[in-house]
Amino acid sequence: PPRGTPGSRVLGGAGGGIDHIASEVQAAVAELERSGRAPLARLALERYCAMTTIREQMKAVGIAEGADRTYRNWVDRLHQQVLLILTLRSGSTRGYPVGLQTNRHLKVATGVSKAIGIPRAL
Question: pTM of the full predicted structure?
Answer without folding.
Answer: 0.60
